[in-house]
Amino acid sequence: MAVGLIGLAGLLGLLLLWVSARRHKRLGLPAGKIVYSDTGIRQELEKPLYDRSLGLTGRPDYLVRQGKRLIPVEVKSAAAPPVPYDSHVFQVLAYCLLVARQMGTRPPYGLLRYADREFRIDFTYEAEDRLLEVLAEIRRAERRGGLPERSHASAARCRACGFRELCDQRLA
User: Fold this and answer.
1) CA angle, corner 14, sides to 72 and 16, nearest 5?
2) Domain range annotation of the chain
3) What count of other Cβ atoms lies within 10 Å of the Cβ of residue 16?
4) I need a labelling partner for 59 at 20 to 30 A (CA). Which of 6, 36, 98, 143 fits?
5) Burial 107-139 (b: 16+ CB within 10 A, else e)
6) What whole-number distance in Å separates Cα of residue 168 and Cα of residue 172?
7) At residue 31, what are phi and psi to the nearest 5 degrees?
8) What percentage of the chain exceeds 70 in pLDDT?
9) CA-to-CA distance for 136 and 141, rounded, in angstroms?
């Protein structure tokens, strides 16, 4: 009887591992434990990541723990462009920077997952410097009282923009 229960518990454990691995694969997540999801799966990270000195706040779609490393994952529902959009790359880099500063562990990379393809965004010191330059440029534009001219003509993209309420160049 005890041997049967042990065998059943072992079988159940294997089934749970298999289900977890399938879920990671379906979501396009790397191996590791999901410690945070902005999609309602896990909630170990109760507040957004925040860096006061940069005035930067963000919530990656997922944070995956791999040993001592935390990997931010951003998921986009659209099909992948041939090369990831700069804004998406900087978004992932910003999450990497926030994880490094707030969680005390520097991610080696972040993942940018489109509907049909995934890009690994390496969080090098050069990439961090580029991100900090972009953030400084945004701050300078804010102090001047305006953001640069829009670089698109898509009303749908305009409606989804996080700066929509502040923008004097709204398309719709």
Assistant:
1) 50
2) 22-139
3) 10
4) 143
5) bebbbbbbeeeebebebeeebbeebeeebeebe
6) 11
7) -60, 145
8) 63
9) 9
**Of all residues in the chain, what percent carry a pLDDT higher than 90?**
42
Contact (CB, 8 A) for 113 and 150: no
C-alpha distances in Å from residue 79, one per residue of 10, 16, 36, 37, 122: 40, 31, 24, 21, 21
Residue 146: CB partners within 8 Å, gap ≥ 6?
A: 168
Rounded to a whole number of angstroms, the CA Rg of the chain reads 20
State the pLDDT at residue 76: 93
Strand partners, 69: 66
Residue 133 has what DSSP assignment? H
Residue type, 60: P
**Token pair recorded at residue 25:** 């694969």
Residue in the structure block whose two tokens are 């999450």: 95
Can you give the pLDDT at residue 111?
Answer: 96
What is the rounded average pLDDT of the residues 105-118?
A: 95
The pLDDT-based confidence of 13 (bands split at 50, 70, 90) is very low
**Cβ distance 73 to 39 under 8 Å?**
no
Give pTM, 2 decimals: 0.68
